[in-house]
Amino acid sequence: MNSLIDKYNIPGPRYTSYPTVPYWDENSFTPELWKQSVIRTFKESNAEEGISIYIHLPFCEALCTFCACHKRITKQHSVEIPYLESVLKEWQLYLKLFNEKPKLKELHLGGGTPTFFSPKNLKTLLEGIFETVEIAEHQEFSFEGHPNNTTKEHLQTLYDLGFRRVSFGVQDYDPKVQKAINRIQSFEKVREVTEWAKEIGYRGISHDLVFGLPHQTWEAMESTIRKTMELKPDRLAFYSYAHVPWVKGVGQRGFDENDLPSGEEKRRLYEDGKKLLEELGYIEVGMDHFSLEHDDLYQSLIQKKLHRNFMGYTSSKTQLMVGLGMSAISDSWYAFAQNIKTVEEYQKMVEEGEIPVVKGHILNDEDLTVRRHILNLMCQLETTFDINNSFPELENAFEMLKEMENDELVEINGHHIQITEKGRAFTRNVAMVFDLRMMRNKPETRIFSMTI
Fold it and tell me: Are 143 and 195 in the same domain?
């Protein structure tokens, strides 16, 4: 395995989209084309499958130095109401594009720290959206909760509004690691919020763990996993730490890079962590995610309904995902769009009656074909090519895959590709074989985290 790590540990995307953000063709994108794409997709899919909404709530009281999200650090809670008023105004701009009431199937509150906001203010925001939509049957509403500031009132308020999923950011329980990443939280606090959620009735409790953090050792990682098992969350995200300090505004400079585990050490954290999780009853779903058999994520995998988007893996799919808030990304299937990345500029654009997108990408037919195959690989670990609807580099792609087949990472049967159990750890590498935009325009500088 070590030789494979040396061979395949290269910079690569996580493929929450294709094309990936650095390869968006911004020159051919305009806000007007984005709006036309939204109108098209809404007409095609709202009645049958509904829409998704992602709301970016960017405020945090302290900077976690491992985090690569767009956020604003402040202890001033006076920012809450003006920001949420802007989000509701942005939603009203989208409502003007629709020819009927949206059917809301999926809603996620991400950040930042959504639980930075008071339960009362979150309720005002959500009721402002709910009064404009039809709630779909079997909707999926979820939010990210910081264990240190998620109160029982937060959990009860959101549950009463239809939320059944909550994800708590744990990362690691080792005090040395927590100090390095500036994320100090006790196991007792995580236990408390997890038990509150269970008591209230949440049926989809998730814990986020991260491997590859500074000073992390297998002994500490094993202890974190075993403590997590005491609380038995329904699902786990077991993320590889993405070290991208060169990205503007990330803030990943609170520790020395020499403190990070080597590629070999990091792979051991993943392999041994995965083995332990499976011994404890968790099943790997897609990439980075594990769940118990009863959880919707596993059931969607079995039913081949697993989906991946900018919110990560989901058990439901909609063609249209509207991103609200500073830096939020939207997806109409035929196009992507990202909002402006500062709170002040975001609020200014919304006040002026503009949907605050500043960059995006309109997918062409080739993009749509490649997107479908990469999505298949990321969600189902397999895909089948139609040689009548392929691309010029397909032959070269299969040549690269043959080398992966020799390394027992994939199995090729005609035009069908299946990622093997051994190859799961290299899923991103397999997907990269079909990334035509990156293949045709290789980056001159490093823009992605390492795949391992």
Answer: yes
Question: Measured at the alpha carbon of residue 368, what is the angle toward residues 364 and 374, in degrees to the nearest 5?
Answer: 140
pLDDT at 123: 98
* Domain carrying residue 4: 1-19+365-452
Q: Which residues are annotated as a binding site?
A: 54, 60, 64, 66-68, 111-113, 144, 171, 183, 208, 242, 329
- Binding residues for S-adenosyl-L-methionine, by number, are 54, 66-68, 111-113, 144, 171, 183, 208, 242, 329
Q: Is residue 260 located within the same domain as residue 283? A: yes
What pLDDT is attached to residue 246? Answer: 45
Instruction: Extract the residue ranges of the chain whose pLDDT is less than 50.
Output: 246, 248-249
Mark 45-68 as b/e (b = at least 16 C-beta within 10 Å).
Answer: bbeebbbbbbbbbbbbeeebbbbb
Judgement on whether residues 369 and 305 belong to the same structural domain of the protein: no
Tell me how far apart the alpha carbons of residues 389 and 381 are, in angstroms, rounded to a whole number.
Answer: 20
How many domains does the structure of the chain reveal?
Answer: 2
What is the model's pLDDT at position 241? 87
Clarify whether residues 382 and 300 are in a common domain: no
User: pLDDT tens for residues 67-102?
Assistant: 878 899 999 999 999 999 999 999 999 999 999 999
Query: Is 407 found in the same domain as 259?
Result: no
